Amino acid sequence: MTDVLLVAAAQPQLGVLAGAVQKFRAQGARVYLACAFDTKSCQEELDRLELDGYQALPYGIGHLRTATRRRLRRLPASRRLWIQMRRNPWLRRHGLGAQQLVALDANAVYTVWRLSQYTDADASFGIAPALRALSDPQRTPAPAKRRALPPRSVIVSDVRRQAKALPETVIRTATARPLMRSSVGARLWRTALGAPGVPANVRARLSRQVAEGMRWAGRPGGATLALTTAAQRISDPAIRTALLDEAAKTELKRGIAPRAFDSTVKELLTAADEQYTSGDPEGAASTLDRALVLGFHRVVHIDQLSSPLASDPAAFSAPVHGSAVMKKIQQPQGRKTPAATPPKDRPLRLLVTTSANDNFLKLILSHYEAHQGVEVRYLDLASTPAMKRISWAGRRMIENRLGGEALYAEQVEQLMRPHLDWADTVFLDWCVAPAVMLTTIDPGDTRIVVRLHSYEAFTRWPHLVDFSRVDDLIYVADHVQDLTTALVPQLRGPEAPRTHMIDNAMDLSAFNRAKPADARFNLGLIGVSQVAKDPLWAIDVLERVRNQDERYRLLLVGGDMDPKTSRATKDYLKEFERQLEPLVESGAVVRLGPTDDVPSALTGIGTILSSSVREGCHVGLMEGAASAAVPVVRDWPFYAGREHSARTLYPEGWVVGSPEEAAKRILETTATEESWQNAGKLASEHALSAWDWPVVSRRFDELLLGE
């Protein structure tokens, strides 16, 4: 049964009301009346209305204290009525329990509106719209609520009053879920946040409360608008920047790039410069760290199918490197003595180090551990809590470079100096935070070699490395070097390290195994654990091929994406699973899952795909080619059309510009068993001659040993 609460600030025409009550009851409703007027003179008429209940509520102010009466007299009658009635137990009980709230006159509208903030009830001004809403089987709270909302000017005025005079709990109540669900209510609150005359700290506090209410109501976009609207009306740079940063974080949690991404990064950089100029290195470091975390956030660059960083790298990084704080940080510190030449009278002492990721080190370690001219030590910087903390302390690294946090450099010295004193050469894999940490101190005469894969170019870390203390920088592909050099000015200056192009260490001979004839119709994708792998592109290719011949299948090798990585990853995975489900059920797609024996998995794959939007060199594709699977490589969109790209990394014919081209190449090269085997043999010969470890190891020996 529906409960209807009528609210009257003045005595209504009881004859008209009697007819309305009968209509409400005819629709199965219980009707209650809140009377904010003198009921003594009309007691009998009220009894004859057949209401399910009515209550005379306090409406006078004579019993209140003088100061309270003076304050209330300055308020409009509608607002004064609410303040007088809001704590009444009868009104609270029936107001919270009603499904329909009805204001019978103009002065009751404000009370009905405030009650509606606590519930999901319909709210109407007048009996006729209330009856229409009640009789509509498709009714929703929102349309009625729009009719009951006061004018925008009333809410703007009420915001100022609440923000200045009422405690935080009242503001929180005023931004509760039901009101925020109403698009009109949410829009009015955002308008109120931009009202003139509100102090900056109050406006900021109120915007956070409105944003909280928006999030509770399932309107995260409204939360972002609330914060940015308030920020635009605040001149205080610290408060404005904090609100913009919070707005950006709200959108990043949703897995989308912030709408005010560029302006927020610039605001943070400006704030960091001002803090540094005013002699606050700690504050400048914290603000710059926030700017870099936002500017190079994985949701913007890594967990998407495109990135503003890749489209115009120099323009993207220009604001960062135009910052006074960044210019200070990127001043090369150099080293007191040059790196010593490799010793002639004893083995080379080689320290191989990384932080938790040794995926591309196993062959290198085993090679030099067996080398008579090399003594190897391996250091995982994530192996102890102390080293892990200091290796990834981004804010402390920045503060140290700005002249503060001297303790940080002392701790790096204490932890790393014994290793640097022992080693002739340090080989650090991955140009991320540990590279920044290592270049915080002078390495002495120890040679520093850093390898940068592809992922690092999309992070903040290369921008913080002091490359004047790095002797050699290894890239895995020309297009990665092009991108990184365009992004990082230090790599274009006189203090830049020597650069080398060396492929990843891969034992490709182990993949050269015989394939069964039916592998010809199996497409393969090695690795689907990242959005950048874009397996939906492979699904598109599969469907185009199956339109011609349903014998083709797609085999997926590797673990799935982790939805906890980011909301962007979760959203992509959801769509991928939706498209994948019917294909798996029909047998068109086979999920092989993760495996430690990739060579065996590849024996059943006749065509190896690279569906990625970006890669360094795509090890899985190279392994597939070595296995004599026909390579079909998407022209990686992040690099397509540039001087170096997938087309310059792989032989002519391997790379395609679209799913249509991919399907055509597959159908042509696998049209017969002979053509498939010939294409696979050529791919295998190229892979083994160009990328197998015996070939690549000689390049490492030349670099590290001078051989």
User: Strand content of the residues, in percent?
Assistant: 5-15%
Mean pLDDT: 88
Rg from Cα: 34 Å
Biggest sheet details? 6 strands, parallel
Number of helices: 35
Describe the strand arrangement of the main beta sheet, using strand numbers. Answer: 7-6-8-9-10-11
What structural class is derived from the secondary structure elements?
alpha/beta
What is the global morphology?
flat
Uncertain segments: 140-156, 162-180
Number of strands: 17
Tell me roughly what share of residues is in helical segments: 40-55%
Give the N-terminus to C-terminus distance in angstroms. Answer: 90 Å
What attributes characterize this protein structure?
six-stranded parallel beta sheet; 707 residues; flat; single chain; 12% strand; alpha/beta; 51% helix
Q: Could you characterize what this model shows?
A:
- This protein is of the alpha/beta class.
- The protein has 35 helices and 17 strands.
- Helix 16 (261-277) packs antiparallel against helix 17 (281-295), helix 20 packs parallel to helix 27 (478-487) and helix 34 (673-691) runs parallel beside helix 35.
- The longest helix has 20 residues, at 567-586.
- The protein is flat and about 115 Å long.
Please summarize what this structure is.
The chain is α/β, with parallel strands linked by helices and 707 residues long. The chain is 51% helix and 12% strand. The termini are far apart.
